[in-house]
Design goal:
CATH topology of the largest domain: Phosphatase 2c, domain 1
Oligomer: single chain
Strand content: 15-25%
Strand order of the largest sheet: 3-4-16-15-9-10
CATH architecture of the largest domain: 4-Layer Sandwich
Structural class: alpha+beta
Number of helices: 10
Helix content: 25-40%
């Protein structure tokens, strides 16, 4: 007769062997599946299987239960190995691209979701910006006019926010001309509007005033304010700094709002005709603070309401309570020592000082090469903003008697 204790001991050994073989079978099966489909989880799942056998945890057994992979999920796995096998036909958009994660059905195995794959479209020369109105812009361009030279370079943004404008032979007089350089922000809507309307509004106002210098300066100020009012009525939130010059009757009338600058060369010596409207100027900062705005130093500059670093501009609807469009003006008589003007956006002046700019233009005989050289210097010194440089030859506007 078999001893009862011996029977129980034999049964226990058989049961233990049975559970060991069943656990080993699951571990081998699971390891095969994870090696094929989920290589980053193979070692952890195998350890979980060993843990199930030795510790008998129910949660562990549920964690490693083999998933039931659908046909669609198998296709996605194949697509991981060969992206050309599976693709969503009939659409090239990012939203409709099939990039998925395998989800288990009828199992509790947790699979960490992978981030969606980044689909980078190929460059297309017909890509349009601003809806259907404007083609992809060139990064650099030049304009050679009758009395001026202009060079522009787009910075790190996808669109050029700088602009320019000019009017020659005003009222049929070849010695009357208007030039402006514009630096937009928050989009280029304001820069485009200023380029197309500021000169026209100033010339229109010239017909309502006399020829006295003080009246001409008033016409410049009114032109700025009218342009600002008209642009604001459109409800667009972008803004633009601008500097302008009006050449009339052997006089130079300068106006600016913002941080574009005008520099005059007097026999090779730089004469800055404008002052930047930035909050680093104590008078401008005090004016804005007294009007109730919050001003603080952020990212290397004083800013209005934590955003705008200039204190005067055309536009800026959301900040118009503090950002005024009234320009500062200056008038001077042209003499024989007046050689040329350099008008530029802050993309130049943040890296190149006035005398250095005059020296470059003088060495290159006021040629297009001088404009491009100034842009190259600014870029080589780390500027990533848009740059616009205009050089105006004053020979024709200087009275012969001088």
């Amino acid at each position: 007769m078999i001893d009862l204790h011996q029977f129980i001991w034999s049964f226990s050994l058989i049961s233990l062997l049975h559970y060991f073989l069943r656990g080993l079978k699951k571990a081998i099966s699971m390891a095969s599946l994870t090696i094929i489909n989920f290589p980053i989880y193979s070692s952890s799942r195998l350890l979980s299987s060993v843990g199930e056998f030795f510790f008998g945890q129910e949660e562990t057994r549920q964690e490693i239960s083999p998933p039931m992979v659908s046909q669609e999920e198998k296709s996605l796995i194949l697509h991981e190995k060969n992206p050309n096998v599976v693709k969503n036909e009939g659409s090239n958009s990012l939203e409709n691209t099939k990039v998925g994660n395998i989800n288990t059905t009828g199992a509790a195995m947790k699979v960490r979701k992978r981030p969606a794959k980044l689909v980078v479209p190929e460059f297309c020369a017909s890509l349009e910006l601003y809806g259907n109105e404007r083609k992809l812009e060139r990064k650099e361009f030049e304009v050679e006019g009758r009395d001026f030279l202009l060079a522009c370079k787009r910075g790190r943004r996808e669109v050029m926010e700088d602009g320019y404008g000019f009017m020659l032979d005003i009222h049929g007089d070849p010695k009357q001309a208007f030039f402006t350089v514009i630096d937009g922000h928050g989009g280029r809507a304001a820069a485009e509007y200023v380029a197309g309307n500021l000169g026209r509004n100033i010339v229109k106002e010239l017909g309502n005033v006399g020829d006295e210098g003080i009246q001409l300066e008033r016409a410049m100020r009114v032109g700025y304010q009218v342009t600002d009012k008209e642009f604001l009525s459109q409800g667009v939130t972008s803004g633009a700094c601008t500097a302008s010059v009006l050449l009339k009757d052997s006089e130079l009338h300068v106006a600016n709002a913002g941080d574009c600058r005008v520099v005059l060369s007097r026999k090779g010596v730089a004469d800055s005709l404008t002052k930047d409207h930035r909050l680093s100027r104590e008078d401008e900062r005090s004016r804005i603070e007294n009007a109730g705005a919050y001003v603080h130093f952020c990212n290397g500059a004083w800013r209005v309401q934590g955003s705008l670093a200039v204190s005067r501009a055309i536009g800026d609807l959301h900040l118009k309570e503090w950002i005024i469009s009234e320009p500062e003006t200056k008038r001077l008589s042209l003499t024989s020592d007046c050689e040329f003007l350099i008008m530029a956006s802050d993309g130049l002046w943040d890296k190149v000082n006035a005398q250095e700019a005059v020296d470059v233009v003088s060495r290159n005989k006021s040629s297009m090469e001088s404009c491009k050289k100034l842009i190259d210097i600014s870029s080589s010194r780390g500027n990533m903003d848009d740059i616009t440089v205009m050089v105006i030859n004053l020979d024709k506007f200087v009275p012969k008697s001088h």
